[in-house]
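debug: dumping io for the single-chain case to check the tokenizer round-trip. Nothing else runs in this session.
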Amino acid sequence: MDCRNIDVPLTRYDAIMIGFCLPYLSPREAAELIHNAAALLKSGGVLYISTMEEDENNTSGIKTSSAGEHIFMYFHNARYLLETAITAGFELLLQKRQDYPGNSVKINTDLIFIFKKR
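debug: decoded output
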């Protein structure tokens, strides 16, 4: 299923996991995905989001994979994602940052959210 088109009529879910796709979505597309997830969740449903956090060392742009391929990657701002989720009708249950080694000397930070639909 393409995360840019998750319209599934008459289906409501207890939980939705969004992982490994936000680095390929612009901030506008990420916001749209969060709003679409809200529409698909039952009241009290849980939304899990993980993505790479934007900071002074990690900014959106063309990146090179370990295989040498070039791709545009988006790093996302925590405040923007949090505000978008709250606007979409979620309350925050958990926000966590997990550092891991990136390319060369950079440290990448995974940003993890768990929300509950109000």
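debug: round-trip ok. The radius of gyration is 15 Å.
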